[in-house]
Amino acid sequence: MNIVQFLIWIVIGGIAGYLADYVVKGVKVGLVGAIVVGMLGGLLAGGLLSLIGIGVGSYIGDIVVSFVGAVILLVIYRAIKKK
To answer: Which of 7, 10, 42, 66 is deepest in the core (most CB within 10 A)?
Structure first.
């Protein structure tokens, strides 16, 4: 992974995390948290999709996959936080 790919990963994670933070009510993670959640969500959802043989070939697809993963992580975080 070179620096450009890393920066693209951060931008995609940031976009996905920000959107997920906006959609999931009751959790506000801030900018850095949104980037981290988006990146982790991308790893989670991307890993699960690759296990079932589905690949994503575009930046928009990467954002959607990261968004779905980030929403899942934020919903889990919100459930744990409320207990």
So the answer is: 66
| Residue-level pLDDT, tens digit, the chain, 83 residues | 688 888 888 888 889 999 999 999 888 888 888 889 989 988 888 888 888 888 777 888 888 888 999 999 999 999 998 76
Domain that holds residue 64: 30-83
- 37 close to 17: Cβ distance less than 8 angstroms: yes
* Whole-number Å distance between alpha carbons of 83 and 70: 20
- Total number of domains in the chain: 1
In a domain, 22, yes or no: no
CA–CA separation, 65 and 44 (whole Å):
9
Q: Which of 64, 67, 46 is nearest to 55 (CA)?
A: 46
- Determine the 3-state secondary structure of 19 from DSSP: helix
| Assigned domain for 24 exists | no
